[in-house]
Structures are given as C-alpha cells and as structure tokens.
Write a structure and sequence with these properties.
This protein is of the alpha+beta class and 89 residues long. 21% of the residues lie in helices and 38% in strands. The chain has one helix spanning 45-63; strands spanning 2-4, 7-12, 15-22, 25-32, 35-38, 77-78, 84-86. The strands form two sheets. A five-stranded antiparallel beta sheet has the order 5-4-3-2-6, with helices on one face. A two-stranded antiparallel ribbon has the order 1-7. The model has no long low-confidence stretch (mean pLDDT 90).
Amino acid sequence: MFRSLSGFKAQYHYLTLLAVSEFDEWKVLVSAPGITIHGARQFGEVKAKDHALGIARQYIHDEKHADLPVLESVDWAPTGPDDWLVWRS
C-alpha cells in the first residue's frame, strides 16, 4: 500500500530525517541507504522534529563514531508530492 507523506523532511549529514503526521500523532523516521530507524511516535510537530534530530545525532556520533561536526539544527522542508511511505498490512 502506498500513501503520500504529510509532514517535514531534513538532512543530517548523510541521514534523511522525516517527521510525518498520522492522525493525531507524528511518526519519526531516520534513513540512509541500508538503514531505517523508526523513532517513537510523538504528539506534536516540534517534538517529532527534535526527536528525529536526536536520533540522527546519536546514530552518527555515538553509534558510528563518525568524525563529522555536530549540527545544532537542520533545515526542515515540507514533504512534497514525490515523498511516499510504503507499508505492508
């Protein structure tokens, strides 16, 4: 099943961050080729964006120990008609 995403996306180095509105909750996803991290659902846009950024920082700096600068913020953009979420039921 396919459906268009309604929310926001950003880049944290090589990771794509998504905060997607689903009814009264926000789904958080962080992805890159070969990896998808599902964050905890959040009850608000700001909390979802902060959670996604926290996951990205922890993954790159604490798990991968990448020698990349810590970004204090990212530029969030609205998702568009070419952004899709695929899931199986």
